[in-house]
Amino acid sequence: MKRTLFFGICSALFGGLVVLGGTRLLPLKADPSAPEVRVENSPVNRRAAPVTSYAAVIKKAAPSVVNISSTSIIHERAYPFFTDPFFQQFFGGQFPGGSRELTRKEESLGSGVIISPNGYILTANHVVAGAQKVRVSLANGKRYTAKIVGTDPPTDVAVLKIDATGLPAITLADSDKLQVGDVVLAIGEPFSLRGTVTMGIVSALGRHGLHFGGDEYDYEDFIQTDAAINPGNSGGALVDAEGRLVGINTAIVSSSGGNEGVGFAIPVNLARNVMERLIHGGKVTRGYLGILERDLTPSLAQDFHVSDESGALVDDVLPGTPAEKAGIEPGDVIIGVNGKKVTDADSLRLHVSELSPGSEATLKLLRNGHEKTVTVTLGELPEEAENGGSNKSGAQAQASTDALDGVTVSDLDADARQELHIPANIHGALVTDVDPDSNAARAGLRQGDVILQINHHPVENAQDAVNLCEQAQGDQILLWVWQRSGGLSGREWLSVDNRKEK
Fold first, then answer.
1. Annotated active-site residue in 64, 175, 234, 489
2. Which of 280, 302, 328 marks a domain boundary?
3. pLDDT one-digit tens code per residue, 215-241
4. Counted domains in the chain
Protein backbone atom coordinates (compact mmCIF):
# COMPACT_ATOMS: atom_id res chain seq x y z
CA MET A 1 0.00 0.00 0.00
CA LYS A 2 1.40 3.36 -0.97
CA ARG A 3 1.79 5.79 1.92
CA THR A 4 2.01 9.53 1.39
CA LEU A 5 3.28 11.86 4.09
CA PHE A 6 2.20 15.48 4.30
CA PHE A 7 4.29 17.45 6.72
CA GLY A 8 2.95 19.93 9.17
CA ILE A 9 4.74 20.94 12.38
CA CYS A 10 5.99 20.21 15.64
CA SER A 11 5.67 22.44 18.60
CA ALA A 12 4.30 25.27 20.59
CA LEU A 13 5.79 27.00 23.41
CA PHE A 14 7.29 28.01 26.66
CA GLY A 15 7.88 31.32 27.71
CA GLY A 16 7.20 34.65 28.95
CA LEU A 17 5.56 35.62 32.15
CA VAL A 18 2.08 34.33 32.81
CA VAL A 19 0.59 32.49 35.77
CA LEU A 20 -2.75 30.98 34.75
CA GLY A 21 -4.61 27.96 36.00
CA GLY A 22 -1.70 27.10 38.29
CA THR A 23 0.96 27.05 35.55
CA ARG A 24 3.92 29.30 36.24
CA LEU A 25 6.11 30.34 33.33
CA LEU A 26 9.42 31.97 34.15
CA PRO A 27 10.43 35.08 32.18
CA LEU A 28 12.78 34.28 29.36
CA LYS A 29 14.72 37.45 30.08
CA ALA A 30 14.22 40.97 31.31
CA ASP A 31 13.49 42.20 27.82
CA PRO A 32 10.30 43.83 26.52
CA SER A 33 10.72 41.87 23.29
CA ALA A 34 10.49 38.50 25.11
CA PRO A 35 7.30 36.57 24.37
CA GLU A 36 4.37 36.77 26.74
CA VAL A 37 2.68 33.40 26.49
CA ARG A 38 -0.77 32.73 27.89
CA VAL A 39 -1.17 29.23 29.34
CA GLU A 40 -4.05 27.41 30.98
CA ASN A 41 -3.09 24.06 32.46
CA SER A 42 -6.56 22.84 33.43
CA PRO A 43 -7.90 19.83 31.50
CA VAL A 44 -10.57 20.34 28.89
CA ASN A 45 -14.17 20.27 30.15
CA ARG A 46 -15.30 16.78 29.16
CA ARG A 47 -19.02 17.45 28.89
CA ALA A 48 -21.41 14.59 28.41
CA ALA A 49 -23.95 16.76 26.55
CA PRO A 50 -23.63 16.75 22.72
CA VAL A 51 -22.11 19.81 21.07
CA THR A 52 -23.93 21.09 17.98
CA SER A 53 -21.46 23.79 16.94
CA TYR A 54 -17.79 24.71 17.38
CA ALA A 55 -18.25 28.21 15.96
CA ALA A 56 -17.19 29.88 19.22
CA VAL A 57 -14.05 27.72 19.43
CA ILE A 58 -13.02 28.55 15.86
CA LYS A 59 -13.75 32.25 16.36
CA LYS A 60 -11.41 32.19 19.36
CA ALA A 61 -8.51 30.23 17.83
CA ALA A 62 -8.51 30.89 14.07
CA PRO A 63 -7.18 34.50 14.18
CA SER A 64 -3.97 33.14 15.74
CA VAL A 65 -3.20 30.91 12.73
CA VAL A 66 -1.15 32.49 9.93
CA ASN A 67 -0.03 31.64 6.43
CA ILE A 68 3.73 31.31 5.91
CA SER A 69 5.49 31.49 2.55
CA SER A 70 9.23 30.97 2.29
CA THR A 71 11.61 31.46 -0.62
CA SER A 72 14.86 29.55 -1.05
CA ILE A 73 17.52 30.05 -3.72
CA ILE A 74 18.67 26.72 -5.18
CA HIS A 75 22.03 26.44 -6.96
CA GLU A 76 22.56 23.42 -9.21
CA ARG A 77 24.71 22.22 -12.11
CA ALA A 78 23.02 21.85 -15.49
CA TYR A 79 24.14 20.23 -18.75
CA PRO A 80 22.47 21.98 -21.69
CA PHE A 81 20.83 19.64 -24.19
CA PHE A 82 21.68 16.56 -22.15
CA THR A 83 19.13 16.60 -19.35
CA ASP A 84 16.92 14.08 -21.12
CA PRO A 85 17.26 10.50 -19.77
CA PHE A 86 17.69 9.32 -23.38
CA PHE A 87 21.09 11.09 -23.58
CA GLN A 88 22.09 10.18 -20.02
CA GLN A 89 22.07 6.46 -20.83
CA PHE A 90 24.83 7.02 -23.40
CA PHE A 91 27.03 9.48 -21.48
CA GLY A 92 26.55 8.12 -17.95
CA GLY A 93 26.37 11.62 -16.50
CA GLN A 94 29.69 12.72 -18.11
CA PHE A 95 28.28 15.09 -20.70
CA PRO A 96 30.41 16.76 -23.37
CA GLY A 97 30.74 20.51 -23.34
CA GLY A 98 30.87 20.84 -19.55
CA SER A 99 28.19 22.22 -17.28
CA ARG A 100 26.96 25.57 -16.05
CA GLU A 101 25.44 26.66 -12.78
CA LEU A 102 21.75 27.52 -12.73
CA THR A 103 19.96 29.40 -9.99
CA ARG A 104 16.27 28.95 -9.33
CA LYS A 105 13.77 29.97 -6.68
CA GLU A 106 11.88 27.41 -4.67
CA GLU A 107 8.85 28.45 -2.69
CA SER A 108 6.95 26.57 -0.01
CA LEU A 109 3.72 27.27 1.80
CA GLY A 110 2.76 26.33 5.30
CA SER A 111 1.04 27.57 8.41
CA GLY A 112 2.07 28.95 11.77
CA VAL A 113 0.63 29.93 15.13
CA ILE A 114 0.98 33.27 16.93
CA ILE A 115 1.94 32.47 20.51
CA SER A 116 2.74 35.97 21.78
CA PRO A 117 1.11 39.38 21.22
CA ASN A 118 4.51 40.88 20.37
CA GLY A 119 5.09 38.77 17.28
CA TYR A 120 6.51 35.34 18.12
CA ILE A 121 5.23 32.59 15.82
CA LEU A 122 5.72 28.86 15.98
CA THR A 123 5.98 26.77 12.81
CA ALA A 124 7.68 23.70 11.38
CA ASN A 125 11.36 23.71 10.55
CA HIS A 126 10.70 22.03 7.20
CA VAL A 127 8.45 24.97 6.21
CA VAL A 128 11.33 27.46 6.47
CA ALA A 129 14.42 25.24 6.12
CA GLY A 130 17.03 26.92 3.92
CA ALA A 131 14.78 29.93 3.33
CA GLN A 132 16.34 33.28 2.45
CA LYS A 133 13.04 35.10 2.81
CA VAL A 134 9.98 34.34 4.95
CA ARG A 135 6.65 36.17 4.72
CA VAL A 136 3.76 35.89 7.16
CA SER A 137 0.15 36.71 6.27
CA LEU A 138 -2.29 37.29 9.14
CA ALA A 139 -5.97 36.45 9.10
CA ASN A 140 -6.77 40.17 8.80
CA GLY A 141 -4.81 40.40 5.55
CA LYS A 142 -1.71 42.15 6.90
CA ARG A 143 1.62 40.84 5.67
CA TYR A 144 5.04 40.93 7.34
CA THR A 145 8.58 39.86 6.63
CA ALA A 146 9.61 37.46 9.39
CA LYS A 147 12.95 36.83 11.07
CA ILE A 148 13.90 33.21 11.84
CA VAL A 149 14.74 33.27 15.55
CA GLY A 150 15.87 29.65 15.62
CA THR A 151 15.24 26.15 14.29
CA ASP A 152 15.57 22.65 15.69
CA PRO A 153 15.56 19.98 12.95
CA PRO A 154 15.50 16.99 15.38
CA THR A 155 11.99 18.06 16.47
CA ASP A 156 11.04 19.95 13.27
CA VAL A 157 10.44 23.14 15.28
CA ALA A 158 11.09 26.70 14.12
CA VAL A 159 10.42 30.03 15.82
CA LEU A 160 9.74 33.21 13.82
CA LYS A 161 9.40 36.85 14.88
CA ILE A 162 7.55 39.66 13.13
CA ASP A 163 7.72 43.34 14.04
CA ALA A 164 4.21 43.82 15.41
CA THR A 165 2.37 44.18 18.70
CA GLY A 166 -1.14 43.54 19.94
CA LEU A 167 -1.46 40.35 17.92
CA PRO A 168 -4.18 37.74 18.62
CA ALA A 169 -2.01 35.20 20.46
CA ILE A 170 -3.45 31.78 21.10
CA THR A 171 -3.82 30.32 24.59
CA LEU A 172 -1.74 27.22 25.29
CA ALA A 173 -3.09 24.15 27.10
CA ASP A 174 -1.26 21.44 29.02
CA SER A 175 -0.90 18.66 26.44
CA ASP A 176 -0.02 16.14 29.17
CA LYS A 177 -3.68 16.26 30.19
CA LEU A 178 -4.99 15.16 26.79
CA GLN A 179 -6.81 11.84 26.70
CA VAL A 180 -7.65 9.46 23.91
CA GLY A 181 -11.16 10.38 22.77
CA ASP A 182 -10.83 14.14 23.32
CA VAL A 183 -12.20 16.23 20.46
CA VAL A 184 -9.58 18.27 18.57
CA LEU A 185 -9.71 20.66 15.62
CA ALA A 186 -6.94 21.17 13.06
CA ILE A 187 -6.71 24.77 11.84
CA GLY A 188 -4.42 25.84 9.02
CA GLU A 189 -3.89 28.09 6.04
CA PRO A 190 -3.30 25.66 3.14
CA PHE A 191 -3.17 26.82 -0.48
CA SER A 192 -3.43 30.43 0.86
CA LEU A 193 -7.00 29.63 1.84
CA ARG A 194 -8.15 31.42 4.96
CA GLY A 195 -8.88 29.40 8.06
CA THR A 196 -9.57 25.83 7.01
CA VAL A 197 -10.83 23.71 9.90
CA THR A 198 -11.27 19.96 10.29
CA MET A 199 -12.46 18.03 13.32
CA GLY A 200 -11.59 14.66 14.83
CA ILE A 201 -10.59 13.01 18.07
CA VAL A 202 -7.31 12.07 19.70
CA SER A 203 -6.82 8.40 18.79
CA ALA A 204 -3.41 7.83 20.43
CA LEU A 205 -0.76 9.64 22.45
CA GLY A 206 3.02 9.33 22.65
CA ARG A 207 3.53 7.97 19.14
CA HIS A 208 7.22 7.65 18.22
CA GLY A 209 9.52 5.70 15.94
CA LEU A 210 7.64 6.97 12.87
CA HIS A 211 10.59 8.88 11.33
CA PHE A 212 8.61 11.11 9.00
CA GLY A 213 11.80 12.98 8.11
CA GLY A 214 13.90 9.85 7.69
CA ASP A 215 16.39 9.70 10.56
CA GLU A 216 16.35 13.48 11.01
CA TYR A 217 13.57 13.72 13.60
CA ASP A 218 15.28 12.26 16.64
CA TYR A 219 12.65 13.22 19.22
CA GLU A 220 9.07 12.15 18.51
CA ASP A 221 6.09 12.22 20.87
CA PHE A 222 3.20 12.63 18.45
CA ILE A 223 -0.45 13.20 19.19
CA GLN A 224 -2.36 10.98 16.74
CA THR A 225 -5.69 12.21 15.42
CA ASP A 226 -8.18 11.43 12.69
CA ALA A 227 -8.73 15.15 12.04
CA ALA A 228 -7.88 15.63 8.37
CA ILE A 229 -4.66 17.60 7.87
CA ASN A 230 -4.61 19.25 4.45
CA PRO A 231 -1.43 19.76 2.42
CA GLY A 232 -0.07 23.15 3.51
CA ASN A 233 -1.24 22.72 7.11
CA SER A 234 2.33 22.18 8.26
CA GLY A 235 2.85 24.36 11.30
CA GLY A 236 -0.86 24.89 11.88
CA ALA A 237 -2.71 24.58 15.16
CA LEU A 238 -4.29 21.55 16.76
CA VAL A 239 -6.68 22.92 19.38
CA ASP A 240 -8.92 21.35 22.00
CA ALA A 241 -12.68 21.86 22.35
CA GLU A 242 -12.04 25.12 24.21
CA GLY A 243 -9.85 26.61 21.48
CA ARG A 244 -6.53 26.16 23.31
CA LEU A 245 -3.40 25.02 21.50
CA VAL A 246 -2.51 21.41 22.30
CA GLY A 247 -0.23 20.65 19.35
CA ILE A 248 1.29 21.71 16.05
CA ASN A 249 0.15 19.74 13.00
CA THR A 250 3.08 18.02 11.38
CA ALA A 251 2.09 15.18 9.02
CA ILE A 252 -0.57 12.81 7.77
CA VAL A 253 -0.18 9.22 6.64
CA SER A 254 -2.39 8.53 3.64
CA SER A 255 -2.81 5.62 1.24
CA SER A 256 -4.18 7.76 -1.58
CA GLY A 257 -2.15 10.97 -1.49
CA GLY A 258 -5.17 12.88 -0.26
CA ASN A 259 -5.84 14.40 3.13
CA GLU A 260 -7.71 11.42 4.56
CA GLY A 261 -5.68 9.21 6.86
CA VAL A 262 -4.03 9.47 10.26
CA GLY A 263 -2.75 12.89 11.35
CA PHE A 264 0.08 13.67 13.76
CA ALA A 265 0.97 16.73 15.82
CA ILE A 266 3.76 17.63 18.23
CA PRO A 267 2.47 18.16 21.79
CA VAL A 268 2.53 21.79 22.84
CA ASN A 269 4.49 20.98 26.01
CA LEU A 270 7.39 19.62 23.99
CA ALA A 271 7.22 22.59 21.64
CA ARG A 272 7.24 25.08 24.51
CA ASN A 273 10.39 23.49 25.86
CA VAL A 274 12.17 23.68 22.48
CA MET A 275 11.05 27.25 21.79
CA GLU A 276 12.27 28.54 25.14
CA ARG A 277 15.77 27.30 24.37
CA LEU A 278 15.70 28.64 20.82
CA ILE A 279 14.76 32.11 22.05
CA HIS A 280 17.50 32.03 24.69
CA GLY A 281 20.39 31.08 22.44
CA GLY A 282 19.20 30.27 18.92
CA LYS A 283 19.83 26.53 19.41
CA VAL A 284 18.77 23.65 21.62
CA THR A 285 21.15 22.05 24.12
CA ARG A 286 19.97 18.77 25.58
CA GLY A 287 20.62 16.79 28.71
CA TYR A 288 22.90 13.74 28.58
CA LEU A 289 23.04 10.61 30.75
CA GLY A 290 25.78 8.63 29.04
CA ILE A 291 24.14 5.21 28.67
CA LEU A 292 23.24 2.83 25.89
CA GLU A 293 19.63 1.79 26.30
CA ARG A 294 17.10 -0.47 24.60
CA ASP A 295 13.45 -1.48 24.71
CA LEU A 296 12.33 -4.39 26.85
CA THR A 297 11.10 -7.48 25.04
CA PRO A 298 8.79 -9.94 26.83
CA SER A 299 11.73 -12.28 27.48
CA LEU A 300 14.01 -9.47 28.72
CA ALA A 301 11.24 -8.19 30.99
CA GLN A 302 11.05 -11.66 32.53
CA ASP A 303 14.84 -11.91 32.86
CA PHE A 304 15.06 -8.58 34.68
CA HIS A 305 12.00 -9.13 36.89
CA VAL A 306 9.86 -6.39 35.32
CA SER A 307 6.14 -7.04 35.71
CA ASP A 308 5.36 -5.51 32.30
CA GLU A 309 7.41 -4.44 29.30
CA SER A 310 7.51 -0.79 30.40
CA GLY A 311 10.92 0.83 30.88
CA ALA A 312 14.32 1.25 29.24
CA LEU A 313 16.98 -1.39 29.83
CA VAL A 314 20.53 -0.08 30.37
CA ASP A 315 22.83 -2.04 28.06
CA ASP A 316 25.97 -0.15 28.99
CA VAL A 317 27.18 2.84 31.02
CA LEU A 318 29.85 4.91 29.29
CA PRO A 319 32.92 5.72 31.40
CA GLY A 320 33.23 9.19 32.93
CA THR A 321 29.60 10.10 32.18
CA PRO A 322 26.90 11.47 34.51
CA ALA A 323 25.29 8.02 34.64
CA GLU A 324 28.49 6.36 35.86
CA LYS A 325 29.04 9.06 38.49
CA ALA A 326 25.46 8.58 39.73
CA GLY A 327 25.92 4.83 40.12
CA ILE A 328 23.70 3.61 37.28
CA GLU A 329 24.65 0.06 36.28
CA PRO A 330 24.20 -2.15 33.20
CA GLY A 331 21.07 -4.22 33.74
CA ASP A 332 19.18 -1.42 35.48
CA VAL A 333 15.71 -0.76 34.06
CA ILE A 334 14.82 2.95 34.14
CA ILE A 335 11.08 3.40 34.65
CA GLY A 336 10.76 7.12 35.50
CA VAL A 337 12.40 10.54 35.06
CA ASN A 338 11.35 13.36 37.38
CA GLY A 339 7.99 11.70 37.97
CA LYS A 340 7.32 11.04 34.25
CA LYS A 341 6.83 7.42 33.26
CA VAL A 342 9.42 5.85 30.95
CA THR A 343 7.70 3.40 28.62
CA ASP A 344 10.66 2.53 26.38
CA ALA A 345 14.09 3.71 25.22
CA ASP A 346 12.65 6.48 23.02
CA SER A 347 10.62 7.97 25.85
CA LEU A 348 13.71 7.94 28.11
CA ARG A 349 15.70 9.84 25.48
CA LEU A 350 12.84 12.32 25.05
CA HIS A 351 12.45 13.01 28.80
CA VAL A 352 16.21 13.51 29.26
CA SER A 353 16.46 15.72 26.15
CA GLU A 354 13.86 18.10 27.60
CA LEU A 355 16.13 18.81 30.57
CA SER A 356 18.96 21.32 30.46
CA PRO A 357 22.64 20.35 30.85
CA GLY A 358 23.71 20.86 34.46
CA SER A 359 20.23 20.23 35.87
CA GLU A 360 19.45 17.40 38.28
CA ALA A 361 17.21 14.52 37.26
CA THR A 362 15.65 11.99 39.61
CA LEU A 363 15.54 8.56 38.01
CA LYS A 364 13.38 5.71 39.24
CA LEU A 365 14.81 2.34 38.25
CA LEU A 366 14.54 -1.37 38.92
CA ARG A 367 17.68 -3.25 39.91
CA ASN A 368 17.29 -7.02 40.30
CA GLY A 369 13.56 -6.45 40.60
CA HIS A 370 13.87 -3.93 43.45
CA GLU A 371 12.91 -0.27 43.01
CA LYS A 372 15.66 2.31 43.51
CA THR A 373 15.89 6.11 43.14
CA VAL A 374 19.02 7.77 41.74
CA THR A 375 19.78 11.49 41.36
CA VAL A 376 22.03 12.43 38.44
CA THR A 377 23.45 15.77 37.31
CA LEU A 378 23.04 15.79 33.53
CA GLY A 379 25.77 16.66 31.08
CA GLU A 380 25.37 18.14 27.61
CA LEU A 381 24.57 15.81 24.73
CA PRO A 382 27.83 15.46 22.71
CA GLU A 383 28.44 14.54 19.09
CA GLU A 384 28.30 10.79 18.58
CA ALA A 385 31.70 9.11 18.56
CA GLU A 386 32.36 6.43 15.99
CA ASN A 387 34.59 3.38 16.35
CA GLY A 388 35.57 1.09 13.52
CA GLY A 389 36.08 -2.67 13.49
CA SER A 390 36.24 -5.87 11.49
CA ASN A 391 35.85 -9.58 12.16
CA LYS A 392 38.20 -12.21 13.63
CA SER A 393 38.30 -15.90 14.54
CA GLY A 394 40.54 -17.64 17.10
CA ALA A 395 40.90 -20.84 19.10
CA GLN A 396 37.55 -22.54 18.69
CA ALA A 397 34.98 -23.99 21.12
CA GLN A 398 31.46 -25.11 20.29
CA ALA A 399 28.50 -24.45 22.58
CA SER A 400 26.16 -27.42 22.73
CA THR A 401 23.07 -25.98 24.45
CA ASP A 402 19.93 -25.23 22.48
CA ALA A 403 20.34 -21.48 23.18
CA LEU A 404 23.85 -21.31 21.69
CA ASP A 405 23.61 -24.24 19.34
CA GLY A 406 25.34 -23.17 16.13
CA VAL A 407 27.60 -20.64 17.91
CA THR A 408 31.39 -20.99 17.90
CA VAL A 409 33.48 -19.05 20.43
CA SER A 410 37.18 -18.51 21.03
CA ASP A 411 39.45 -16.96 23.61
CA LEU A 412 39.92 -13.23 23.26
CA ASP A 413 43.65 -12.77 22.66
CA ALA A 414 45.86 -9.80 21.77
CA ASP A 415 45.64 -10.44 18.02
CA ALA A 416 41.84 -10.44 18.13
CA ARG A 417 41.79 -7.20 20.15
CA GLN A 418 44.05 -5.45 17.65
CA GLU A 419 42.22 -6.64 14.55
CA LEU A 420 38.72 -5.98 15.94
CA HIS A 421 39.61 -2.81 17.87
CA ILE A 422 38.23 -4.31 21.07
CA PRO A 423 39.00 -2.13 24.12
CA ALA A 424 41.32 -3.47 26.84
CA ASN A 425 38.53 -3.38 29.43
CA ILE A 426 36.39 -5.87 27.49
CA HIS A 427 36.81 -9.46 28.73
CA GLY A 428 34.91 -12.51 27.57
CA ALA A 429 34.52 -15.06 24.79
CA LEU A 430 34.80 -13.97 21.17
CA VAL A 431 32.03 -15.17 18.84
CA THR A 432 33.75 -16.45 15.70
CA ASP A 433 30.78 -18.00 13.92
CA VAL A 434 26.97 -17.98 14.19
CA ASP A 435 24.64 -20.21 12.23
CA PRO A 436 22.15 -17.78 10.61
CA ASP A 437 19.28 -20.21 11.35
CA SER A 438 20.14 -20.55 15.05
CA ASN A 439 18.24 -19.21 18.07
CA ALA A 440 21.24 -17.02 18.91
CA ALA A 441 21.26 -15.39 15.47
CA ARG A 442 17.54 -14.65 15.76
CA ALA A 443 18.22 -12.96 19.13
CA GLY A 444 20.86 -10.70 17.55
CA LEU A 445 24.18 -12.45 18.28
CA ARG A 446 26.70 -11.92 15.48
CA GLN A 447 30.21 -12.91 14.50
CA GLY A 448 32.68 -10.54 16.16
CA ASP A 449 30.58 -10.07 19.32
CA VAL A 450 32.16 -10.67 22.72
CA ILE A 451 30.08 -12.55 25.31
CA LEU A 452 30.66 -10.83 28.68
CA GLN A 453 28.09 -12.56 30.90
CA ILE A 454 25.73 -15.52 30.72
CA ASN A 455 22.76 -15.38 33.09
CA HIS A 456 24.58 -12.67 35.09
CA HIS A 457 27.70 -14.86 35.52
CA PRO A 458 30.96 -13.36 34.17
CA VAL A 459 32.63 -15.00 31.16
CA GLU A 460 36.43 -14.88 31.04
CA ASN A 461 37.15 -17.20 28.10
CA ALA A 462 35.61 -19.59 25.58
CA GLN A 463 35.45 -22.54 27.99
CA ASP A 464 33.57 -20.38 30.54
CA ALA A 465 30.96 -19.65 27.90
CA VAL A 466 30.53 -23.32 27.06
CA ASN A 467 30.33 -24.40 30.70
CA LEU A 468 27.82 -21.73 31.68
CA CYS A 469 25.61 -22.52 28.71
CA GLU A 470 25.61 -26.23 29.55
CA GLN A 471 24.66 -25.43 33.17
CA ALA A 472 21.89 -23.01 32.17
CA GLN A 473 18.30 -24.04 32.72
CA GLY A 474 14.98 -22.55 31.71
CA ASP A 475 13.45 -21.44 28.43
CA GLN A 476 15.76 -18.42 27.99
CA ILE A 477 19.47 -17.71 28.40
CA LEU A 478 20.44 -14.07 29.07
CA LEU A 479 23.62 -12.84 27.38
CA TRP A 480 25.43 -9.58 27.98
CA VAL A 481 27.54 -8.91 24.91
CA TRP A 482 29.84 -6.29 23.47
CA GLN A 483 29.16 -5.64 19.80
CA ARG A 484 29.50 -3.11 17.02
CA SER A 485 26.67 -1.71 14.93
CA GLY A 486 26.92 0.93 12.21
CA GLY A 487 30.43 1.94 13.25
CA LEU A 488 29.46 2.29 16.92
CA SER A 489 30.38 -0.13 19.69
CA GLY A 490 28.72 -0.87 23.01
CA ARG A 491 27.27 -3.50 25.33
CA GLU A 492 23.73 -4.83 25.25
CA TRP A 493 21.53 -7.62 26.58
CA LEU A 494 20.24 -10.47 24.44
CA SER A 495 17.65 -13.04 25.52
CA VAL A 496 18.18 -16.27 23.59
CA ASP A 497 15.56 -19.00 23.30
CA ASN A 498 16.82 -22.18 24.98
CA ARG A 499 14.16 -24.42 23.44
CA LYS A 500 14.58 -26.67 20.43
CA GLU A 501 12.72 -25.72 17.26
CA LYS A 502 9.74 -28.01 16.63
1. 234
2. 280
3. 455 777 889 988 877 767 788 899 999
4. 3
